[in-house]
Amino acid sequence: MSKGQPSRVDEATCNSTTRRRLLKGTLGAAATVAAVPALGGVAAAHFPVELDIDVQPGNEENFLDAAEHESVSVAVHPSEFLGSDGERTTFNPADESVRYRFGSRFTLQKGEGARPLDEGEITRVEGASGESHEMLVLRFPVDDTGFDGGEETGWLYWERDEDGHHGYAGFDSVRVYGTETLNSDLLELFKRKLGAEDN
User: Fold this and answer.
1) Long-range pairs for 8-15 at CB < 8 Å and ≥24 separation?
2) pTM
3) pLDDT confidence bin for 84, thresholds 50/70/90
4) Cβ within 8 Å of residue 64, ≥6 positions away
5) Per DSSP, which regions of 43-182 are E strands?
6) Band of the pLDDT at 41, cuts 50, 70, 90?
7) Which of 144, 161, 169, 170 matches a 20 to 30 Å C-alpha distance to 188?
8) In this structure, what are the phi and psi dihedrals at residue 175, rounded to the nearest 5 degrees?
């Protein structure tokens, strides 16, 4: 990991962070409800949602063009939460091993997903009120994320150890573009397979 120079977060970025946290609260409730049936009660316990992440930091829309972008950046901020033992736990990405996977929830549940292109960069972020913290910024290859254009959420798994079965998860909203051609090709293939006529 490399250390970046301290950077001053402007008012727009602070507003983006506040908006991101509010959106995460809403997305979190919806994602939890949607994920429980799909997970069967097992994987959810292995990767509880405890990470504070920001997809495409500095980009309020979290825009990702799968046809144009070769990589996507994800910032991991420190987070504090109650562990399974009831004790307060702090996850500091600057102190943890770089064992992450990023992509669609479905892709990560299958044990797949994009791995970081490198060890990432540690950057100190200073907020408007003077507080500061270090965040880890990672880059992931877009082709391995499993995004098909229907996603509104990007997920990040951090694996506690090499076996990759336990750790923490985080998510952020995304806007994925550049997959329309692929989707229309698949639709055409299904039409031909079912013998439907193309009007």
Assistant:
1) 8/126, 9/125, 9/126, 9/127, 9/128, 11/128, 12/60, 13/58, 14/127, 14/128
2) 0.70
3) confident
4) 55, 56, 72, 142, 147, 154, 174, 175, 176, 177, 178
5) 52-55, 63-65, 71-77, 79-82, 88-91, 100-103, 121-126, 132-141, 153-159, 167-173, 175-177
6) very low
7) 144
8) -125, 105
Amino acid at the residue 75: A
Among candidate residues 52, 84, 72, 53, the one with its CA nearest the CA of residue 113: 72
- Residue from 182, 180, 153, 198 nearest 34 by CA: 153
Confidence of residue 198 (pLDDT cuts 50, 70, 90): low
pLDDT, mean of residues 107-128: 92
Q: What are phi and psi of 64, to 5 degrees?
A: -135, 115
DSSP H helical ranges for the chain: 11-39, 43-46, 105-109, 180-194
**Residue 82: what residue type?**
L
pLDDT of residue 11: 45
128: helix, strand or coil: coil
Query: Three-state SS for 137?
Result: strand
